[in-house]
Amino acid sequence: MPNLVCSHLVKHYRDVVAVEDLSLEVADGEFLVLLGASGSGKSTALRMVAGIEAPDSGEIVLGGRRVDELLPRDRDVAMVFQSYALYAHMSVRNNLAFPLRCANVPRSEIAVRVAEVAEMLSIGDLLHRRPGQLSGGQQQRVALGRAIVRRPALFLMDEPLSNLDAKLRARTRLELARLHRRLGATTMYVTHDQVEALTMGDRIAVLDGGVLHQLATPEELYEHPADLVVAEFVGSPPMNLLAAEASVSDGRLLMVAEGFRIDVPVGDLHPRVAAGLDRLPKAVLVGARPEYVRPLSTEDANFSVRGRIERVELLGSERVLWVDLAASPDRPWAARVPTATPPAEGSAVSLRVEPAGLRLFASTTGQAIGVGEAPR
Amino acid sequence: MMLRTHTIRASANTSTAVVWAVSLAGSAFIILPIVFMVGTALKSDSAVLSVPVQLIPGEPKFSNFSKATQLIPFWRQMANSVLVAGMGAIGTVLSSAMAAYALARLRVRGMRAVFTIILVTILLPSQVLLVSQFLIFKGLGWYGTYLPLIVPSWLGGGTFNIFLLRQYFLTLPRELEQAAMLDGAGPLRTFFQVVLPQAAPALAAVGVLDFVSKWNDFLGPLIYLNETSDYTLPLGLAAFRGIYDTAWNYLMAASLLSVLPCVVLFLVAQRWVVRGFAVTTTKG
Fold first, then answer.
1. When you count CB atoms within 10 A of the terminal residue's CB, does the N or C end of chain A come out lower?
2. Residues B228-283: pLDDT tens digits?
3. ipTM of this model?
4. Maximum Cα–Cα distance for chain A, whole Å?
5. At B19, is the pLDDT very low, low, confident or very high (cuts 50, 70, 90)?
6. How close, in Å, is residue B174 to chain A by CA atoms?
7. Percent of the residues in chain B that have a pLDDT greater than 70, as a whole number
8. According to the per-residue pLDDT averaged within each range, which of A185-194, A251-260, B245-254 is highest?
């Protein structure tokens, strides 16, 4: 039974559309990530669920109760802000106790719950300090603690890791995931960092321009993006894309562009892509993730993708080759190769794409070709 | 090379000297009258108006200070001043903060119009309202009491203070109030426990300035108070000025004593006052 249901939420600011017809469900205990660039509407959506912003239209149902007309304090949600929003004039202990005092919880119980949360987050020896005396990581844990101590039905987190340095961020990601498993709490988490989304989310909702583009598991999002927005946002390096003309005949898929020719049997494609070929438009964007792209050591009749290596990046266990293609002058294609003996920078190279890794997108709409919709 | 460093050091010395000269001149302009006050307070009756004028008398009479506090009911009047200025300042701080917060945060149609109307009243000199206010207070039966001096402070506290605090509240990040909303705090708890503590510097500035202004207020007590034992200090000090002559030495002595509480208050709050006039930027 879903814990949170948002139906057709709309929010406009003057002429700007912040959120357009957003509908999604979060299951009980699920960790849902709202992923998108700045201005995509993810924070606005979160704030509407929190009650800080009122939607222009739409419904929000939490735990079977309609809450979109209730005050924030009556919704049983807790929020961790990007800036932590700690009460600077109160001690850490009083910051943690504040929401319980507002709820008229008995003093003895407040003491117990504050101690419990402090132990959970390892901030027990900081209780007497003020927020101004804490490091960024410690402040973030206090902000988390203030939310956890309330035992709400829903946790909301607005980019809580963005103010931390990279190393601390990686460690805190793990801690947050561990906490989530321990608490089993339904969580809605907003971020622009696709690594955070992929590593932490049970499911991810990708937003752009106020519109929900895809809501799916990290694997589904990565392997079968529903459209170009998702394909380009998720994955690092991003998915390679190239405009080409596509056609199917005699059970083979042919894609052609300047200096680019791929001719493969339909049976070699991923079944979900093959299933959409009956609706194949002429103008497509050919997509392939870098791990499916390799330099050719010998000639292959099916592939004629020629280019020049612009740059070779070392990523520790492997290298990324950035190849300038004639058909894609502004966007070099990336290929992941093992570290041993890569080709040199500046040399000419031919590329091969693993047919099962080929993805196609309609040029006009940006929609993925094939069975793009995964069950939500 | 040597010529360049010599020139740089020389110009640094010159500008330092200029700064010192200007500072000393400015300080002298302010301090000299106070030195003269102190000197006058220590003079005997005959030495006060003697010519040539002595800044500090040869034989200082420190007993003038205690004599001055006996010639008028000085300590009683100081207590009255503390009551009027203190109660007034507290009322100003509280009510102007509440008005300012409403103007800064409430998103209701017409709020800008309300603010503009309030702001326009700043143009009215208080003397223009004198007669109408007097008639109102007389009609209420408040003549001869402290109520006309204290109650108005509790009803908004003055346009300038509302304006100052409104601007300050606008600089506070809304996230803190949003966090309080989510934590379950109602509007009053949010205002008193979350917002006001953040505004402490601005509140201290408003409080101190209002206290000093009420401490020095002569016109209000003059109009509404008629028992000498009810007088505040500015009114009480006026007793030293007779029809034919003025007891300058005792007047200066009593004046110096009457200034002390304000000096102490300002010294205590000055850290906060300076911060109150600068608009703070939000930290991450």
1. N
2. 889 999 999 988 888 888 888 899 999 999 999 998 898 888 766 565 544 333 33
3. 0.82
4. 78
5. very high
6. 9
7. 92
8. A185-194
Q: Do A98 and B183 touch (CB under 8 A)?
A: yes
In a domain, B1, yes or no: no
Whether residue A284 contacts residue A363, with contact meaning beta carbons closer than 8 Å, is answered with yes
Residue B43 lies in a domain: no
What is the domain range of residue B180? 71-282
Each residue's pLDDT tens digit, A305-362: 888 888 888 887 888 989 988 888 788 999 988 877 777 888 888 888 989 999 999 9
Q: Assign residue B201 a region (left: φ > 0; alpha: ψ between -120 and 50; beta: otherwise).
A: alpha
Domains, in order of start, for chain A: 2-225 (3.40.50.300), 233-362 (2.40.50.140)
Task: Among A72, A83, A88, select the one facing B182 at the smallest CB separation.
Answer: A72
Q: What is the CA radius of gyration of chain A?
A: 25
Q: Is A122 left (phi over 0), alpha (psi -120 to 50) or beta?
A: left
Nearest to A12 by CA among A51, A58, A50: A58
Q: Is residue B272 part of a domain?
A: yes
Half-sphere exposure of A102 (CA within 13 A, CB side): 26
Q: How far is CA B254 from CA A250, A365, B84, B214, in A?
A: 112, 87, 19, 18
Nearest-angstrom CA–CA distance, B176 and A77: 16
Q: Hey, of B172, B182, B203, which one would you mutate to test binding to chain A, going by the most A CBs within 10 A of its CB?
A: B182
Strands (E) in chain A, as ranges, are 2-13, 16-27, 31-35, 57-62, 65-66, 77-80, 154-158, 187-191, 203-208, 211-216, 240-249, 252-257, 260-265, 283-288, 293-295, 303-314, 318-325, 328-338, 348-353, 358-362
Torsions phi, psi for A105 (to 5 deg): -75, 140
pLDDT, tens only, A12-55: 988 888 999 999 999 999 999 999 998 899 999 999 999 999 99
- pLDDT value of position B275: 59
Residues B257, B239: Cα–Cα separation, whole Å? 16
Asked if B173 lies within 8 A of A99 by C-beta distance, the reply is no
Q: Given CA atoms B259, B265, B269, B271 in this order, what sign does their dihedral have?
A: positive
pLDDT value of position B241: 85
Q: How far apart are CA A314 and CA A303, in angstroms?
A: 26
CATH number assigned to the domain comprising residue B134 = 1.10.3720.10
| Nearest residue on chain A to B197, alpha-carbon basis | A89
Taking the C-alpha atoms of residue A158 and residue B223, their distance in angstroms, rounded to an integer, is 59
Is the CB of residue A146 less than 8 Å away from at least one CB of chain B?
Answer: yes
**pLDDT band (50, 70, 90) for residue A67:** very high
How many Å separate Cα B270 from the centre of its chain?
Answer: 12
How many beta-carbon pairs below 8 A join chains A and B? 61
Split into its structural domains, chain B has a count of 1
Cβ–Cβ below 8 Å for A73 and B198: no
Is residue B121 a part of any domain in this protein? yes
Statement: residue A299 has pLDDT above 80: no
| Max CA separation in chain B (angstroms) | 83
Q: How close B194 comes to chain A (CA, Å)?
A: 7
**pLDDT attached to residue A54:** 92
Q: Which residue of B179, B189, B194 is in closest CB contact with A81?
A: B179
Average the pLDDT over each of A152-166, A342-356, B74-88, B251-265 and give the range with the smallest value. Answer: A342-356
Spatial separation of the C-alpha atoms in residues A275 and A344, rounded to whole Å: 39
Q: Which of B182, B189, B282 sits opposite A77 (nearest CB)?
A: B182
